[in-house]
Amino acid sequence: MAETLDRPTTVEGEYSCWLPRHRRSPGLARLLLRTFLGGHPGGERFAEVGELLLSELVTNAVEHARVPAGRLVKVRFALEADRLRVEVHDASPQRPVPGPAPARPEAEAGRGLMLVRELSDGWGCCPRAGGVGKYVWFECTPAGPAGAGTPGSVAALTPAGPGTA
Question: Do 111 and 45 touch, CB atoms closer than 8 A?
């Protein structure tokens, strides 16, 4: 499964393609985003947060969207100056519901939308215009230096180690 199901759509600063609803699709989506960002000067600034949140949304579309067999998932990326917008489309009209906050420490799921909420500059869910289903989107600005704990960075949600304030 090293390729998408159709020819991707590429416009200056934008990219979209359809992926199968398969457990490998989150990894493929991350690779596509990494490649997309690598083709833009400064794009790597969005990689850490962008890949994490994209993976969460594609995983939700693959695992939780109740749709007929054969339906696909669409990913769309748009990069403008200092803002990355990512959309994940699926054929389910059911809106995502964040799990209880905070998720239990032993829970293996339920943190995805919390991560999207905490690490993005904005996110939401909209019905697809002229089609079935919905799309879930997020926007983010470049992450600060690794470990800086700045808003919008993965380090901002990493608990401090023992003996740190």
Answer: no
34 pLDDT tier (thresholds 50, 70, 90): very high
Task: Check: CB of residue 127 under 8 Å from CB of residue 134.
Answer: yes
Peptide bond into 162 cis (omega under 30): no
Q: Biggest alpha carbon distance in the chain? A: 55
Residues 6+ apart with CB under 8 A from 22: 1, 62
Partners of residue 19 on adjacent β-strands = 73
Q: Which amino acid is at 4?
A: T
144: left (phi over 0), alpha (psi -120 to 50) or beta: beta
Q: Supply angle C-alpha 47, 50, 53, rounded to 5.
A: 145
Spatial separation of the C-alpha atoms in residues 118 and 90, rounded to whole Å: 23
Report the DSSP beta bridge partners of residue 33: none
Q: Is this model's pTM higher than 0.85 or not?
A: no
